[in-house]
Amino acid sequence: MGSAPPDGDPAPADGALPAAALAAAGERGLGLYVHVPFCAKRCGYCDFNTYTAAELGPPDGPPGASRETYADAAIAELGFARGVLAGTERPFETVFFGGGTPTLLPPDHLVRILRAAEDGFGLAPGVEVTTEANPDSVTPADLEVLREGGFNRISFGMQSSVRHVLRVLDRTHDPEGVPRAVRWAREAGFEQVSLDLIYGTPGESLDDWRRSLDGALACGPDHVSAYALIVEDGTALARRVVRGEVPAPDDDDLADKYVLADETLTAAGLSWYELSNWARDEAARCRHNLLYWRGGDWWGVGPGAHSHVGGVRFWNVRNPRTYAARIAEGVSPAEAREVLDEPTTRTERILLETRLVEGLPVSVLDVPGRDRLPELRQRGLVTEEPDRVVLTRHGRLLADAIVRDLVP
Ligand SMILES: C[S@@+](CC[C@H](N)C(=O)[O-])C[C@H]1O[C@@H](n2cnc3c(N)ncnc32)[C@H](O)[C@@H]1O
Ligand code: SF4
Q: Measured from the CA of 157, which atom of ligand 2 is nearest?
């Protein structure tokens, strides 16, 4: 999830990319991620790079470090990106505003950032423009401004329909807030509505989870993401688990809940296309996340945001004040970068593509990896498809172990 970036090489102050990366860029679709690092309250399980007003400190920092001024810093980074990618820039195929809570910014600020992306790079015909939102962070008027400004997909952090589960997760919304927010989004004209769910929260029974799945389906979503709760080091939840106040998620319980999710969502007409993601049809799949999973190119704007261009991965400084100060000085916000060599690229392809419904081409595996396939097929963990590694439902439950087995 929101874990710390790996160590890399220091990134140059001007953000310039190696010529080979620029030469390799331009062949594939380009995505844009805009990170909005603000939340009203930190949920006890979350270690994403996000800050409450109290955590940000007094509003005396450089412009761009506060909610009020953040859009200008993000727009300045887009101008910077245009310079770095000069000659290879192309219209964005997908744009994704994530967080944090993007909808804590006034909606016209989000639209202003989108306009700057369009002015600088262009938006491809049929561009997918998503924002994440907390169910209690939007009003009908906000949603109308976003929709009119070009956003066409919204992903609500629903997590659960059950009050006591939302309480353990420290969520600020009530179960009733989700269907209301979805209705407002539809009324505003959003074509694509997605709901994020979490299963395995301490105290959540299988019946509670069934109620959450049913509650999500009753909203008529086009897309559902269902994530097993991860107890991230350093979070309030991890401290509660260590103190013995709440139990850690149990693997068997998580497996039962995954199977229930897959059965329930499939029966309602949503099919899995990535281990934790189900969509009504192909058009409802999240194209932005597919771009990540298929090793595409994207620029990530904002504190802690990661980018990948032509085989080079780079990531920005995490602290909003440091980020804003760099932007104000005209220095690249990128802190470090990593040139991905062939073995790393291949390992990442195995890790990511094995999780997709179309699976991984067998040709990507080395000989020992291919030699493991007959046994995986015999155990019913991968399908009989000869040229691709496609996980069965049973295999999806053991995806991490299977992938570990396949990487060189
Ligand atoms: C980082 S949030 C950003 C969107 C929005 N602030 C929200 O919470 O809905 C995106 C999603 O990540 C998931 N998430 C965050 N931390 C998680 C964890 N420790 N375990 C499982 N899922 C997590 C939640 O489902 C959440 O909806
Ligand atoms: S609202 Fe979303 S991003 Fe913010 S702390 Fe909670 S899970 Fe994390």
A: 2
Check residues 1 and 41 and name the one with the higher pLDDT: 41
User: Which residues on neighbouring strands pair with residue 279, listed in sequence order?
Assistant: 223, 271
Cα-based torsion angle of the residue sequence 22, 24, 26, 29 in order, rounded to the nearest 10 degrees: -120
Pocket test for ligand 1, best of 38, 198, 277, 286 (most atoms within 8 A of CB): 198
Closest CA to 172 of 40, 45, 304, 267: 40
Q: Is the CB of 134 under 6 A from ligand 1?
A: yes
Which ligand 2 atom sits nearest the alpha carbon of residue 46? Answer: 8
Single pTM value for the model: 0.96
What secondary structure does DSSP assign to 88-157, as a single string? T---EEEEEEEES-GGGS-HHHHHHHHHHHHHHH-EEEEEEEEEEE-GGG--HHHHHHHHHTT--EEEEE
Contact 251, 306 (CB under 8 A): no
| Residue carrying the six token digits 């916000």 | 333
Structure tokens at 365: 């595996």
Answer whether the bond into residue 31 is a cis peptide, omega within 30°.
no
Neighbours of 236 (CB within 10 A): 13
Residue 308 CB burial class (10 angstroms; 0-12, 13-18, ≥19): buried
Strands 277-279 and 297-301: unpaired
**Torsion angle of the four alpha carbons 282, 197, 92, 351, in this order, in degrees rounded to the nearest 10:** -80
Of 363, 355, 231, 369, nearest to 292 by C-alpha is 355
Report the candidate in 352, 217, 222, 346 with the shortest Cα–Cα distance to residue 274. 352
pLDDT in tens, 112-154: 999 999 999 999 999 999 999 999 999 999 999 999 999 999 9
Instruction: Compute the half-sphere exposure of residue 96: CA atoms within 13 Å on the CB side of its CA.
Output: 22
Average pLDDT, integer, range 64-82: 94
Q: What is the pLDDT of residues 303-319, one digit of tens each?
A: 999 999 999 999 999 99
**How far is ligand 2, taken at its centre, from the CA of residue 6, in Å?**
22
Say what the pLDDT of residue 8 is: 84
